[in-house]
Amino acid sequence: MGSMIDIKRPDGGTVRGYLAEAGRGKPGIVVIQEWWGLNDQIMGVADRFARAGYNAIAPDLYKGRVTTTPDEANHLMEGLDFPGATHQDIRGAAQHLKGMGGKVAVMGFCMGGALTVAAGVHVPEADAGVCFYGIPPAEFADPAKIRGPFQGHFANKDDWCTPAAVDALEAAMKKAGLKPDIHRYDAAHAFANERSEAYDVKCANLAWERMLPFLATALK
User: Fold this and answer.
1) Three-class HEC string of the chain
2) pLDDT tens-place string over residues 26-49
3) What is the pTM of this model?
């Protein structure tokens, strides 16, 4: 459904990204990859958003590199320039979608979920955020400083984005007077990825069903 395009970054550079279009004037979604890279599964998420009526861009944060092995994925993630990805690649994608018309949300999974929180803090064009099981270090992006509506989907059986970390994120946001829409699932990390061994179709479908009305309201 979509195609690869060049996206202009705020610093004048470019980043490649997968664009799935729903039409001019439609709201937009920046879809942020997991640590595997911009693979077919993430592009499929962008296509799914386009079918739901959103223009969607998935920026290629790894510059063409994709893996299926956890060790290499961890190496790629650790080598990622997170500030650059946030302030340049993700913001550039959000600006591109703004240019197509409508408000813009940022959403992502795992590493992309952490970057969703960061975008909510650092990307002015982000009107809303939907995070799937990812939280960045508070020194990089304090969740209390998220500006727009925020929805989070987290797994109770997650040893990376732990229930305690989710509780701390929710508490920090509420202490700041924010009203995060947090959902917890009796599932494992990556439960929304149909290619993962942790995939839980019931929880994944429920999360999607909760996300669509949230986005419809936030991007109205």
Assistant:
1) CCEEEEEECCCCCEEEEEEECCCCCCCEEEEECCCCCCCHHHHHHHHHHHHCCCEEEEECCCCCCCCCCHHHHHHHHHCCCHHHHHHHHHHHHHHHHHHCCCCEEEEEECHHHHHHHHHHHHCCCCCEEEEECCCCCCCCCCHHHCCCCEEEEEEEECCCCCHHHHHHHHHHHHHCCCCCEEEEEEEECCCCCCCCCCCCHHHHHHHHHHHHHHHHHHCC
2) 999 999 999 999 999 999 999 999
3) 0.97
